[in-house]
Amino acid sequence: MKQPFFSVIIPTLNEETYLPGLLSDLTKQTEKDFSVIIVDGNSTDNTKKCVQAFASTLNPNFHSIKTRNVSHQRNTGAEYSDGHYLVFLDADCRLEKDFLKKAKQYLKKHRKLFLVLRMLPQESEKELYDEYIFNALNYLVEFSQLTKKPFACGGWMIVEHALFEFLGGFNKKLFLSEDHDLVQRARVSGVKAAVPKDLFVYVSMRRFQKEGRMKVITKYLISTLHTVRGQKIHERIFDYEMGGQHYSLPNNGQKSFTGKLRQYAQKVKNALSS
């Protein structure tokens, strides 16, 4: 059997709401030379049924494991994959129909072994300032590739299969920043990741909506500072829940980033008019 160019690896945990969107996007890809591997962390919802619904169009390989650890799930997916390149995607991502086509063209032209993908907020979930936030994050990730401490995001990256095996996969002992750890180990091994300018993944804003934008950004900054200092995050330094079940619950009452700005603007307006 011919080796597919890509193996798309998706770790899941109670993703019945979001996973069908990504799987639907994969069925619409103009590039068809790929396999799909889903590694589920023993979900208690209908995630498996969602995958089975795409049996005739995607023929995804579904594997359920007891360990709920995103790094372990990604590594397991890599073990089951047969693609030349491994495409790691979070279950709540969305893709344009030519995503894999563009990725394949870029990889063949530039012969890269590691791609860190840009991210944009999903149109249906974004608020006024979200694009500015994500543009800043994209610039930060791109700039970091010029340093000795590059950043990445495990939820949307592409790694050559043999390189991933050589690196030993994601470090499943880390609480956070296992993605930064992987791209930095690649750098030490002599492989510099590329950040293609026209290769985007559309990211769900559900964590931002649930916890509040400022709170999530603060968590990212804290974990980034640990990375810059060379400190691996083995312990839970703050709450960072995984799994779709956390987003079906009522939010914590925090106002959105845009809502806070509007509230502040109204206070200024009232002060000026008084």
UniProtKB/TrEMBL annotation:
InterPro entries referenced in this protein's UniProt entry, alphabetically: Glyco_trans_2-like, Glycosyltransf_2, Nucleotide-diphossugar_trans
Domain called Glycosyltransferase 2-like: residue spans: 7-165
Name the record gives this protein: Glycosyltransferase 2-like domain-containing protein
One Pfam family linked to the record: Glycos_transf_2
Phylogenetic classification of the source organism: Bacteria, Candidatus Roizmaniibacteriota
SUPFAM superfamilies (alphabetical): Nucleotide-diphospho-sugar transferases
Gene3D superfamilies in the cross-refs: Spore Coat Polysaccharide Biosynthesis Protein SpsA, Chain A
